[in-house]
Write a structure and sequence with these properties.
A two-stranded antiparallel ribbon has the order 1-2. The protein is built from 2 helices and 2 strands; from the N terminus they run H-H-E-E. It folds into 2 domains: 30 residues; 47 residues, no CATH class. The longest helix has 19 residues. It is mainly alpha-helical. The N and C termini lie far apart (50 Å). It binds zinc ion. The site of zinc ion has 8 residues, from loops.
């Protein structure tokens, strides 16, 4: 059992790193909160299909109601 502890500790540190990055809205972060479209206030689905390569790499979505491109933090991409 104890031989797995370094691997578990590393996994936890990596996860915390991505959550911490998400708080500063870094490209490498993850966002655990649901995104709300700033234009029409529609809640975006939690599970979403990426529309292009950039979205599959970095996250983000296109609002199904108004078609606004959003990043994974809900900011408008122009
Ligand atoms: Zn919208």
């Amino acid at each position: 059992m104890y031989q797995f502890l370094p691997a578990i500790a590393t996994a936890v540190i990596v996860l915390l790193f991505f959550i911490w990055k998400g708080k500063s809205q870094s490209k490498f972060g993850i966002n655990l909160k649901r995104v709300i479209c700033p234009v029409c206030k529609t809640k975006q689905p939690v599970i979403r299909m990426p529309h292009d390569l950039q979205q599959s790499l970095w996250g983000g979505t296109i609002c199904p109601k108004c078609g606004t491109r959003l990043d994974k933090y809900g900011n408008i991409i122009s």
